[in-house]
Amino acid sequence: MSTQPILRLGTVKTVGGFQLHLQSLGLTIPCDDTLLRGTESPLRQPLVTGDIKIGNRIVVHPMEGWDGSPDGNPSENTSRRWQRFGRSGAKLIWGGEAVAVSHEGRANPNQLVAAAHTEEGLSRLRRTLIEEHRLTTGSDDELLIGLQLTDSGRYSRPNAHGQPEPRILYHHPFLDRRLGLPPDFPLLTDAEIEIIIGNFHKAALLAWKLGFEFVDIKHCHGYLGHEFLSAHTRAGRYGGCFENRTRFLREVVQGIRSVAPQLKVAVRLSAIDSVPFHPDPAKSSNGKLGPGIPELHESEIPYRWGFGVNALDPTESDLDEPVRLLSLLEQLGIRLVNITAGSPYYNPHLQRPALYPPSDGYLPPEDPLVSVARQMEATRRLKQQFPNLIFVGTGYSYLQDFLPHVAQAALRESWVDMVGLGRMVLTYPELLWDATEGRTIERKRICRTFSDCTTAPRKGLPSGCYPLDSFYKDSELMTQLTIAKKH
Ligand SMILES: Cc1cc2nc3c(=O)[nH]c(=O)nc-3n(C[C@H](O)[C@H](O)[C@H](O)COP(=O)(O)O)c2cc1C
Ligand code: SF4
Questions:
Q1: Exposure winner among 306, 396, 436, 474, fewest CB in 10 A?
Q2: Mean pLDDT score, 123-147
Q3: What global pTM score does this model have?
Q4: Do 61 and 94 contact (CB within 8 A), yes or no?
Q5: Number of structural domains the chain divides into
Q6: What is the 3-state composition of the chain as percent helix, strand, coil, each rounded to the nearest 5?
Protein backbone atom coordinates (compact mmCIF):
# COMPACT_ATOMS: atom_id res chain seq x y z
CA MET A 1 0.00 0.00 0.00
CA SER A 2 1.17 3.55 -0.72
CA THR A 3 2.35 5.48 2.33
CA GLN A 4 0.46 8.58 1.11
CA PRO A 5 -2.49 9.40 3.38
CA ILE A 6 -5.82 8.72 1.72
CA LEU A 7 -7.34 11.91 0.33
CA ARG A 8 -10.80 12.60 1.81
CA LEU A 9 -13.10 12.98 -1.18
CA GLY A 10 -15.25 15.51 0.71
CA THR A 11 -12.34 17.96 0.31
CA VAL A 12 -12.29 17.65 -3.48
CA LYS A 13 -14.41 20.49 -4.78
CA THR A 14 -14.55 20.02 -8.55
CA VAL A 15 -15.05 17.20 -11.03
CA GLY A 16 -11.75 18.20 -12.65
CA GLY A 17 -10.03 17.83 -9.27
CA PHE A 18 -11.56 14.38 -8.87
CA GLN A 19 -10.44 13.33 -12.34
CA LEU A 20 -6.88 14.48 -11.58
CA HIS A 21 -6.99 12.53 -8.34
CA LEU A 22 -8.02 9.38 -10.22
CA GLN A 23 -5.11 9.93 -12.59
CA SER A 24 -2.69 10.35 -9.70
CA LEU A 25 -3.83 6.96 -8.39
CA GLY A 26 -3.44 5.43 -11.86
CA LEU A 27 -7.11 4.44 -11.94
CA THR A 28 -9.39 4.16 -14.93
CA ILE A 29 -12.84 5.10 -13.68
CA PRO A 30 -15.01 6.85 -16.27
CA CYS A 31 -16.26 10.22 -15.07
CA ASP A 32 -18.25 12.81 -17.05
CA ASP A 33 -17.54 16.54 -16.66
CA THR A 34 -21.17 17.61 -16.74
CA LEU A 35 -24.43 15.96 -15.83
CA LEU A 36 -27.20 15.58 -18.37
CA ARG A 37 -30.81 16.14 -17.38
CA GLY A 38 -34.12 14.39 -17.84
CA THR A 39 -34.42 12.09 -20.83
CA GLU A 40 -31.00 13.30 -22.06
CA SER A 41 -29.38 11.51 -19.17
CA PRO A 42 -28.24 7.90 -19.61
CA LEU A 43 -29.53 7.38 -16.06
CA ARG A 44 -33.04 8.17 -17.21
CA GLN A 45 -33.11 5.89 -20.27
CA PRO A 46 -35.61 3.05 -20.02
CA LEU A 47 -34.35 -0.50 -20.40
CA VAL A 48 -36.75 -2.58 -22.46
CA THR A 49 -35.80 -6.04 -23.62
CA GLY A 50 -38.03 -9.10 -23.99
CA ASP A 51 -40.44 -9.18 -21.07
CA ILE A 52 -38.28 -6.85 -18.95
CA LYS A 53 -39.30 -3.19 -18.84
CA ILE A 54 -37.49 -0.90 -16.43
CA GLY A 55 -38.20 2.83 -16.61
CA ASN A 56 -34.70 4.12 -15.83
CA ARG A 57 -31.19 2.92 -14.98
CA ILE A 58 -31.25 3.72 -11.26
CA VAL A 59 -31.30 0.77 -8.86
CA VAL A 60 -31.71 0.46 -5.11
CA HIS A 61 -29.56 -2.38 -3.79
CA PRO A 62 -30.92 -4.61 -1.03
CA MET A 63 -30.26 -2.86 2.30
CA GLU A 64 -31.16 -4.71 5.44
CA GLY A 65 -31.90 -2.83 8.66
CA TRP A 66 -31.64 -5.43 11.45
CA ASP A 67 -34.92 -3.93 12.60
CA GLY A 68 -37.67 -6.51 12.07
CA SER A 69 -39.60 -8.06 14.94
CA PRO A 70 -38.47 -11.32 16.59
CA ASP A 71 -41.01 -13.22 14.45
CA GLY A 72 -39.60 -11.77 11.23
CA ASN A 73 -42.19 -9.07 10.53
CA PRO A 74 -41.21 -5.56 9.45
CA SER A 75 -41.25 -2.72 11.99
CA GLU A 76 -41.97 1.00 11.56
CA ASN A 77 -38.26 1.52 10.88
CA THR A 78 -38.31 -1.13 8.16
CA SER A 79 -41.28 0.58 6.59
CA ARG A 80 -39.53 3.95 6.67
CA ARG A 81 -36.54 2.45 4.87
CA TRP A 82 -38.68 0.96 2.10
CA GLN A 83 -40.53 4.26 1.77
CA ARG A 84 -37.18 5.93 1.18
CA PHE A 85 -36.26 3.25 -1.37
CA GLY A 86 -39.38 4.38 -3.23
CA ARG A 87 -38.42 8.04 -2.88
CA SER A 88 -35.14 7.39 -4.75
CA GLY A 89 -36.94 7.39 -8.10
CA ALA A 90 -35.16 4.11 -8.96
CA LYS A 91 -37.18 1.95 -11.34
CA LEU A 92 -35.44 -1.23 -10.25
CA ILE A 93 -35.70 -2.25 -6.60
CA TRP A 94 -33.25 -5.10 -6.31
CA GLY A 95 -34.74 -7.16 -3.55
CA GLY A 96 -35.49 -4.53 -0.89
CA GLU A 97 -33.47 -6.38 1.67
CA ALA A 98 -32.32 -9.89 2.52
CA VAL A 99 -35.35 -11.90 3.63
CA ALA A 100 -34.65 -15.32 5.14
CA VAL A 101 -36.47 -18.34 3.73
CA SER A 102 -36.71 -19.88 7.22
CA HIS A 103 -36.23 -18.88 10.83
CA GLU A 104 -33.02 -20.94 11.11
CA GLY A 105 -31.56 -19.16 8.09
CA ARG A 106 -31.80 -15.66 9.61
CA ALA A 107 -28.55 -13.70 9.91
CA ASN A 108 -29.79 -11.95 13.04
CA PRO A 109 -32.81 -12.11 15.37
CA ASN A 110 -34.33 -9.09 13.58
CA GLN A 111 -34.07 -10.25 9.99
CA LEU A 112 -37.28 -10.48 7.99
CA VAL A 113 -38.62 -13.94 7.18
CA ALA A 114 -40.78 -15.04 4.24
CA ALA A 115 -43.61 -17.04 5.85
CA ALA A 116 -47.39 -17.11 6.11
CA HIS A 117 -47.37 -14.93 9.24
CA THR A 118 -45.30 -12.20 7.52
CA GLU A 119 -47.28 -12.04 4.26
CA GLU A 120 -49.24 -8.95 5.23
CA GLY A 121 -46.13 -7.17 6.55
CA LEU A 122 -44.10 -7.85 3.38
CA SER A 123 -47.00 -6.82 1.20
CA ARG A 124 -47.33 -3.54 3.13
CA LEU A 125 -43.63 -2.78 2.54
CA ARG A 126 -44.14 -3.15 -1.18
CA ARG A 127 -47.22 -0.93 -1.21
CA THR A 128 -45.49 1.76 0.88
CA LEU A 129 -42.58 1.79 -1.55
CA ILE A 130 -44.83 2.10 -4.59
CA GLU A 131 -46.87 4.97 -3.10
CA GLU A 132 -43.72 6.95 -2.35
CA HIS A 133 -42.24 6.13 -5.75
CA ARG A 134 -45.32 7.65 -7.40
CA LEU A 135 -44.82 10.87 -5.43
CA THR A 136 -41.25 11.18 -6.72
CA THR A 137 -41.66 10.12 -10.34
CA GLY A 138 -45.36 10.69 -11.01
CA SER A 139 -46.14 7.07 -11.87
CA ASP A 140 -45.31 3.48 -11.07
CA ASP A 141 -45.06 2.51 -14.74
CA GLU A 142 -42.09 0.32 -15.55
CA LEU A 143 -41.16 -0.09 -11.89
CA LEU A 144 -39.70 -3.54 -11.23
CA ILE A 145 -39.63 -4.74 -7.63
CA GLY A 146 -38.04 -7.96 -6.44
CA LEU A 147 -37.49 -9.67 -3.13
CA GLN A 148 -34.07 -10.92 -2.09
CA LEU A 149 -34.27 -14.45 -0.70
CA THR A 150 -31.51 -15.78 1.50
CA ASP A 151 -30.32 -18.43 3.87
CA SER A 152 -27.50 -17.10 6.02
CA GLY A 153 -25.62 -20.39 6.28
CA ARG A 154 -22.33 -19.84 8.11
CA TYR A 155 -23.60 -16.46 9.37
CA SER A 156 -26.90 -17.67 10.84
CA ARG A 157 -27.74 -16.06 14.15
CA PRO A 158 -31.51 -16.38 14.28
CA ASN A 159 -32.41 -16.35 17.95
CA ALA A 160 -32.89 -13.64 20.54
CA HIS A 161 -29.71 -14.55 22.45
CA GLY A 162 -27.84 -13.35 19.36
CA GLN A 163 -25.27 -16.16 19.44
CA PRO A 164 -23.99 -17.60 16.12
CA GLU A 165 -25.71 -20.80 15.03
CA PRO A 166 -23.64 -21.56 11.92
CA ARG A 167 -24.83 -23.95 9.24
CA ILE A 168 -21.78 -24.69 7.16
CA LEU A 169 -21.15 -26.62 3.96
CA TYR A 170 -17.46 -27.32 4.49
CA HIS A 171 -14.66 -26.56 6.91
CA HIS A 172 -12.90 -23.32 6.09
CA PRO A 173 -9.46 -22.96 7.69
CA PHE A 174 -9.86 -19.25 8.52
CA LEU A 175 -13.60 -18.72 8.83
CA ASP A 176 -14.07 -21.77 11.09
CA ARG A 177 -11.38 -20.39 13.38
CA ARG A 178 -13.13 -17.02 13.57
CA LEU A 179 -16.31 -18.71 14.70
CA GLY A 180 -14.42 -21.04 17.05
CA LEU A 181 -15.73 -24.14 15.26
CA PRO A 182 -14.01 -27.44 16.16
CA PRO A 183 -12.85 -29.74 13.32
CA ASP A 184 -15.76 -32.11 14.00
CA PHE A 185 -18.42 -29.38 13.82
CA PRO A 186 -21.20 -31.00 11.73
CA LEU A 187 -21.77 -29.95 8.13
CA LEU A 188 -25.24 -29.43 6.66
CA THR A 189 -26.26 -32.80 5.23
CA ASP A 190 -27.56 -33.25 1.67
CA ALA A 191 -30.99 -34.00 3.15
CA GLU A 192 -30.94 -30.71 5.10
CA ILE A 193 -29.90 -28.89 1.92
CA GLU A 194 -32.93 -30.34 0.13
CA ILE A 195 -35.17 -28.90 2.85
CA ILE A 196 -33.53 -25.49 2.40
CA ILE A 197 -34.11 -25.69 -1.36
CA GLY A 198 -37.78 -26.41 -0.65
CA ASN A 199 -37.88 -23.33 1.60
CA PHE A 200 -36.65 -21.21 -1.31
CA HIS A 201 -39.47 -22.58 -3.47
CA LYS A 202 -42.09 -21.74 -0.84
CA ALA A 203 -40.68 -18.27 -0.28
CA ALA A 204 -40.62 -17.58 -4.04
CA LEU A 205 -44.25 -18.60 -4.38
CA LEU A 206 -45.14 -16.29 -1.51
CA ALA A 207 -43.24 -13.40 -3.15
CA TRP A 208 -45.13 -14.00 -6.39
CA LYS A 209 -48.49 -14.03 -4.60
CA LEU A 210 -47.60 -10.70 -2.95
CA GLY A 211 -46.91 -9.07 -6.32
CA PHE A 212 -43.11 -9.09 -6.40
CA GLU A 213 -42.02 -9.50 -10.01
CA PHE A 214 -38.75 -11.28 -9.33
CA VAL A 215 -36.80 -12.98 -6.61
CA ASP A 216 -33.06 -12.72 -6.16
CA ILE A 217 -31.48 -16.01 -5.21
CA LYS A 218 -28.71 -14.45 -3.15
CA HIS A 219 -25.24 -15.79 -4.06
CA CYS A 220 -23.02 -13.24 -2.39
CA HIS A 221 -21.29 -11.97 0.75
CA GLY A 222 -20.47 -15.35 2.28
CA TYR A 223 -24.04 -16.47 2.88
CA LEU A 224 -25.21 -19.97 1.98
CA GLY A 225 -25.73 -19.52 -1.79
CA HIS A 226 -22.25 -18.01 -2.08
CA GLU A 227 -20.70 -20.72 0.12
CA PHE A 228 -21.98 -23.41 -2.27
CA LEU A 229 -19.91 -21.86 -5.07
CA SER A 230 -16.70 -22.31 -3.09
CA ALA A 231 -17.52 -25.78 -1.70
CA HIS A 232 -14.58 -27.40 -3.53
CA THR A 233 -13.70 -29.56 -0.52
CA ARG A 234 -17.25 -30.81 0.16
CA ALA A 235 -18.00 -34.42 -0.73
CA GLY A 236 -21.26 -35.56 -2.34
CA ARG A 237 -23.83 -34.02 -4.66
CA TYR A 238 -23.35 -30.38 -3.59
CA GLY A 239 -19.59 -30.03 -3.51
CA GLY A 240 -16.46 -30.61 -5.54
CA CYS A 241 -16.85 -30.02 -9.27
CA PHE A 242 -18.50 -26.91 -10.77
CA GLU A 243 -21.62 -28.90 -11.62
CA ASN A 244 -22.07 -30.02 -8.03
CA ARG A 245 -21.32 -26.58 -6.57
CA THR A 246 -24.04 -25.05 -8.75
CA ARG A 247 -26.60 -27.81 -8.12
CA PHE A 248 -28.22 -25.78 -5.32
CA LEU A 249 -28.79 -22.86 -7.71
CA ARG A 250 -30.17 -25.13 -10.44
CA GLU A 251 -32.52 -26.97 -8.09
CA VAL A 252 -33.78 -23.72 -6.56
CA VAL A 253 -34.46 -22.29 -10.03
CA GLN A 254 -36.12 -25.48 -11.33
CA GLY A 255 -38.51 -25.57 -8.38
CA ILE A 256 -39.39 -21.88 -8.71
CA ARG A 257 -40.15 -22.38 -12.40
CA SER A 258 -42.62 -25.11 -11.49
CA VAL A 259 -44.41 -23.32 -8.59
CA ALA A 260 -44.38 -19.76 -10.04
CA PRO A 261 -43.60 -19.98 -13.77
CA GLN A 262 -44.08 -16.26 -14.43
CA LEU A 263 -41.91 -15.09 -11.58
CA LYS A 264 -38.56 -13.79 -12.84
CA VAL A 265 -35.40 -15.06 -11.20
CA ALA A 266 -32.35 -12.88 -10.60
CA VAL A 267 -28.98 -13.50 -8.98
CA ARG A 268 -26.82 -11.21 -6.87
CA LEU A 269 -23.32 -12.60 -7.14
CA SER A 270 -20.02 -11.97 -5.36
CA ALA A 271 -18.18 -12.39 -8.66
CA ILE A 272 -14.79 -11.56 -7.20
CA ASP A 273 -13.37 -12.38 -3.83
CA SER A 274 -10.15 -12.68 -1.89
CA VAL A 275 -8.94 -14.33 1.29
CA PRO A 276 -10.21 -13.00 4.63
CA PHE A 277 -8.47 -9.87 5.92
CA HIS A 278 -7.78 -8.83 9.49
CA PRO A 279 -6.19 -5.79 11.16
CA ASP A 280 -2.39 -5.99 11.14
CA PRO A 281 -1.65 -6.97 14.77
CA ALA A 282 1.72 -5.18 14.60
CA LYS A 283 -0.04 -1.91 13.86
CA SER A 284 -3.13 -2.24 16.09
CA SER A 285 -2.97 -0.89 19.63
CA ASN A 286 -5.19 0.42 22.45
CA GLY A 287 -8.39 -0.62 20.68
CA LYS A 288 -7.26 1.16 17.48
CA LEU A 289 -7.56 -0.96 14.35
CA GLY A 290 -4.52 -1.39 12.14
CA PRO A 291 -4.60 -1.60 8.33
CA GLY A 292 -6.08 -4.76 6.87
CA ILE A 293 -3.72 -7.53 5.83
CA PRO A 294 -4.57 -10.87 4.23
CA GLU A 295 -4.98 -13.77 6.63
CA LEU A 296 -3.05 -16.30 4.62
CA HIS A 297 -0.64 -19.10 5.35
CA GLU A 298 1.65 -20.37 2.61
CA SER A 299 0.59 -23.93 3.44
CA GLU A 300 -2.95 -23.00 2.33
CA ILE A 301 -1.90 -22.48 -1.31
CA PRO A 302 -3.39 -23.58 -3.65
CA TYR A 303 -6.36 -21.95 -1.98
CA ARG A 304 -9.42 -24.20 -2.22
CA TRP A 305 -12.02 -22.16 -0.33
CA GLY A 306 -12.85 -19.36 -2.72
CA PHE A 307 -14.98 -18.52 -5.74
CA GLY A 308 -13.75 -15.90 -8.20
CA VAL A 309 -10.34 -16.17 -6.50
CA ASN A 310 -6.99 -17.02 -8.04
CA ALA A 311 -6.05 -20.26 -6.24
CA LEU A 312 -2.31 -19.63 -6.63
CA ASP A 313 -2.46 -15.99 -5.51
CA PRO A 314 -5.72 -15.77 -3.56
CA THR A 315 -5.38 -12.08 -2.84
CA GLU A 316 -6.23 -11.69 -6.56
CA SER A 317 -9.51 -12.43 -8.30
CA ASP A 318 -10.04 -14.82 -11.19
CA LEU A 319 -13.07 -14.50 -13.43
CA ASP A 320 -12.92 -17.98 -15.06
CA GLU A 321 -15.54 -19.59 -12.83
CA PRO A 322 -17.77 -16.49 -12.57
CA VAL A 323 -17.83 -16.54 -16.40
CA ARG A 324 -18.96 -20.19 -16.31
CA LEU A 325 -21.62 -19.26 -13.79
CA LEU A 326 -22.95 -16.44 -15.95
CA SER A 327 -23.13 -18.86 -18.89
CA LEU A 328 -25.17 -21.15 -16.68
CA LEU A 329 -27.48 -18.27 -15.72
CA GLU A 330 -28.03 -17.58 -19.42
CA GLN A 331 -28.87 -21.24 -20.00
CA LEU A 332 -31.34 -21.09 -17.11
CA GLY A 333 -33.04 -18.06 -18.68
CA ILE A 334 -31.87 -15.68 -15.93
CA ARG A 335 -31.08 -12.23 -17.27
CA LEU A 336 -30.87 -9.94 -14.23
CA VAL A 337 -27.52 -10.06 -12.45
CA ASN A 338 -26.17 -7.79 -9.76
CA ILE A 339 -22.39 -7.93 -9.42
CA THR A 340 -20.86 -7.45 -6.02
CA ALA A 341 -17.68 -8.62 -4.29
CA GLY A 342 -16.38 -10.50 -1.27
CA SER A 343 -18.09 -10.36 2.08
CA PRO A 344 -18.75 -7.71 4.74
CA TYR A 345 -17.59 -10.21 7.38
CA TYR A 346 -14.16 -11.16 6.10
CA ASN A 347 -13.03 -8.54 3.58
CA PRO A 348 -15.30 -5.48 3.91
CA HIS A 349 -12.91 -3.16 2.04
CA LEU A 350 -13.56 -5.20 -1.09
CA GLN A 351 -17.33 -5.27 -0.63
CA ARG A 352 -18.21 -1.78 0.66
CA PRO A 353 -15.24 0.56 0.13
CA ALA A 354 -15.02 3.01 3.03
CA LEU A 355 -12.63 5.51 4.56
CA TYR A 356 -13.68 4.68 8.13
CA PRO A 357 -13.86 0.98 9.03
CA PRO A 358 -16.72 -0.76 10.81
CA SER A 359 -15.97 -1.88 14.39
CA ASP A 360 -15.10 -5.43 13.29
CA GLY A 361 -13.06 -4.27 10.28
CA TYR A 362 -9.62 -2.72 9.72
CA LEU A 363 -8.17 0.47 8.26
CA PRO A 364 -8.35 0.49 4.44
CA PRO A 365 -5.46 -1.56 3.03
CA GLU A 366 -5.64 0.51 -0.18
CA ASP A 367 -7.25 3.75 -1.29
CA PRO A 368 -10.98 2.91 -1.29
CA LEU A 369 -11.11 4.25 -4.86
CA VAL A 370 -8.93 1.29 -5.85
CA SER A 371 -11.58 -0.98 -4.33
CA VAL A 372 -14.34 0.84 -6.24
CA ALA A 373 -12.38 0.54 -9.49
CA ARG A 374 -11.88 -3.21 -8.90
CA GLN A 375 -15.63 -3.88 -8.69
CA MET A 376 -16.35 -1.63 -11.65
CA GLU A 377 -13.68 -3.24 -13.81
CA ALA A 378 -14.83 -6.79 -13.02
CA THR A 379 -18.38 -5.82 -13.95
CA ARG A 380 -17.19 -4.18 -17.18
CA ARG A 381 -15.30 -7.30 -18.21
CA LEU A 382 -18.26 -9.56 -17.48
CA LYS A 383 -20.64 -7.23 -19.33
CA GLN A 384 -18.38 -7.37 -22.38
CA GLN A 385 -18.61 -11.16 -22.41
CA PHE A 386 -22.36 -11.31 -21.75
CA PRO A 387 -23.99 -8.49 -23.71
CA ASN A 388 -27.45 -10.05 -23.34
CA LEU A 389 -27.45 -10.12 -19.56
CA ILE A 390 -28.58 -7.05 -17.62
CA PHE A 391 -25.80 -6.02 -15.26
CA VAL A 392 -26.31 -3.92 -12.15
CA GLY A 393 -23.12 -2.33 -10.80
CA THR A 394 -22.25 -2.05 -7.11
CA GLY A 395 -19.86 -0.20 -4.81
CA TYR A 396 -20.52 3.36 -6.01
CA SER A 397 -21.33 5.05 -2.67
CA TYR A 398 -17.67 5.79 -1.90
CA LEU A 399 -17.62 8.06 -4.98
CA GLN A 400 -19.67 10.54 -2.93
CA ASP A 401 -20.17 13.89 -4.76
CA PHE A 402 -18.89 12.34 -7.98
CA LEU A 403 -21.18 9.33 -7.94
CA PRO A 404 -23.60 10.86 -10.49
CA HIS A 405 -20.74 11.77 -12.85
CA VAL A 406 -19.24 8.29 -12.70
CA ALA A 407 -22.63 6.57 -12.96
CA GLN A 408 -23.53 8.58 -16.07
CA ALA A 409 -20.16 7.85 -17.72
CA ALA A 410 -20.26 4.14 -16.82
CA LEU A 411 -23.66 3.81 -18.49
CA ARG A 412 -22.68 5.90 -21.48
CA GLU A 413 -19.57 3.79 -22.05
CA SER A 414 -21.53 0.53 -21.51
CA TRP A 415 -19.49 -0.59 -18.53
CA VAL A 416 -22.76 -1.59 -16.95
CA ASP A 417 -26.51 -1.47 -17.69
CA MET A 418 -27.76 -0.04 -14.43
CA VAL A 419 -26.19 1.61 -11.38
CA GLY A 420 -27.15 0.61 -7.85
CA LEU A 421 -27.11 2.64 -4.65
CA GLY A 422 -26.34 0.93 -1.36
CA ARG A 423 -25.25 3.08 1.60
CA MET A 424 -26.09 6.28 -0.28
CA VAL A 425 -29.74 5.29 -0.20
CA LEU A 426 -29.67 5.43 3.60
CA THR A 427 -28.56 9.05 3.64
CA TYR A 428 -29.66 10.58 0.38
CA PRO A 429 -32.01 8.28 -1.54
CA GLU A 430 -32.88 10.96 -4.12
CA LEU A 431 -29.25 11.69 -5.11
CA LEU A 432 -29.47 10.37 -8.69
CA TRP A 433 -33.01 11.65 -9.12
CA ASP A 434 -31.94 15.14 -8.03
CA ALA A 435 -28.86 14.96 -10.24
CA THR A 436 -30.89 14.05 -13.31
CA GLU A 437 -33.55 16.67 -12.55
CA GLY A 438 -30.81 19.32 -12.54
CA ARG A 439 -31.41 20.15 -8.86
CA THR A 440 -28.64 21.33 -6.58
CA ILE A 441 -27.03 18.36 -4.85
CA GLU A 442 -27.41 18.52 -1.07
CA ARG A 443 -23.82 17.91 -0.06
CA LYS A 444 -24.66 17.56 3.64
CA ARG A 445 -26.63 14.43 2.85
CA ILE A 446 -23.87 12.63 0.98
CA CYS A 447 -22.66 9.37 2.54
CA ARG A 448 -19.08 9.86 3.74
CA THR A 449 -18.60 6.14 4.49
CA PHE A 450 -18.43 6.45 8.28
CA SER A 451 -19.58 2.79 8.46
CA ASP A 452 -21.92 3.30 11.44
CA CYS A 453 -24.66 1.58 9.44
CA THR A 454 -22.45 -1.55 9.65
CA THR A 455 -21.07 -0.97 13.15
CA ALA A 456 -24.53 -0.56 14.75
CA PRO A 457 -25.72 -4.07 13.79
CA ARG A 458 -22.37 -5.51 14.83
CA LYS A 459 -23.23 -4.10 18.27
CA GLY A 460 -26.74 -5.57 18.22
CA LEU A 461 -28.48 -2.32 17.21
CA PRO A 462 -30.61 -1.56 14.15
CA SER A 463 -28.79 -0.23 11.09
CA GLY A 464 -29.30 3.28 9.77
CA CYS A 465 -27.25 6.34 8.97
CA TYR A 466 -26.51 7.53 12.51
CA PRO A 467 -24.14 10.37 11.55
CA LEU A 468 -26.31 12.03 8.88
CA ASP A 469 -29.95 10.96 9.18
CA SER A 470 -31.60 12.90 12.03
CA PHE A 471 -34.09 10.05 12.50
CA TYR A 472 -31.20 8.03 13.98
CA LYS A 473 -28.88 10.86 14.95
CA ASP A 474 -31.41 12.38 17.35
CA SER A 475 -32.71 9.09 18.71
CA GLU A 476 -32.01 7.11 21.87
CA LEU A 477 -30.33 4.54 19.60
CA MET A 478 -27.55 7.07 18.92
CA THR A 479 -26.76 7.19 22.63
CA GLN A 480 -26.67 3.40 22.73
CA LEU A 481 -24.36 3.27 19.73
CA THR A 482 -21.99 5.84 21.21
CA ILE A 483 -21.73 3.78 24.41
CA ALA A 484 -21.39 0.50 22.50
CA LYS A 485 -18.56 1.89 20.35
CA LYS A 486 -16.49 2.57 23.48
CA HIS A 487 -16.50 -1.13 24.42
C1 LIG B 1 -26.35 -1.51 6.33
C2 LIG B 1 -26.18 -2.38 5.14
C3 LIG B 1 -27.13 -3.36 4.84
C4 LIG B 1 -26.96 -4.18 3.72
N5 LIG B 1 -27.90 -5.13 3.45
C6 LIG B 1 -27.74 -5.93 2.36
C7 LIG B 1 -28.71 -6.91 2.05
O8 LIG B 1 -29.73 -7.07 2.75
N9 LIG B 1 -28.50 -7.69 0.96
C10 LIG B 1 -27.40 -7.53 0.15
O11 LIG B 1 -27.25 -8.25 -0.85
N12 LIG B 1 -26.49 -6.58 0.41
C13 LIG B 1 -26.64 -5.78 1.49
N14 LIG B 1 -25.72 -4.80 1.73
C15 LIG B 1 -24.66 -4.53 0.74
C16 LIG B 1 -25.11 -3.38 -0.19
O17 LIG B 1 -26.25 -3.78 -0.92
C18 LIG B 1 -24.01 -2.95 -1.17
O19 LIG B 1 -23.57 -4.07 -1.89
C20 LIG B 1 -22.80 -2.33 -0.46
O21 LIG B 1 -23.21 -1.42 0.53
C22 LIG B 1 -21.88 -1.64 -1.48
O23 LIG B 1 -22.61 -0.68 -2.22
P24 LIG B 1 -22.48 0.90 -1.85
O25 LIG B 1 -21.07 1.28 -2.11
O26 LIG B 1 -23.45 1.62 -2.73
O27 LIG B 1 -22.83 1.03 -0.40
C28 LIG B 1 -25.85 -3.99 2.87
C29 LIG B 1 -24.92 -3.00 3.15
C30 LIG B 1 -25.06 -2.20 4.28
C31 LIG B 1 -24.04 -1.14 4.55
S1 SF4 C 1 -23.51 5.46 8.45
FE2 SF4 C 1 -24.25 6.88 6.90
S3 SF4 C 1 -22.46 8.01 6.17
FE4 SF4 C 1 -21.77 6.18 7.27
S5 SF4 C 1 -21.50 4.62 5.67
FE6 SF4 C 1 -23.51 4.33 6.51
S7 SF4 C 1 -24.84 5.55 5.20
FE8 SF4 C 1 -22.77 6.25 4.84
A1: 474
A2: 98
A3: 0.98
A4: yes
A5: 2
A6: 40, 15, 45
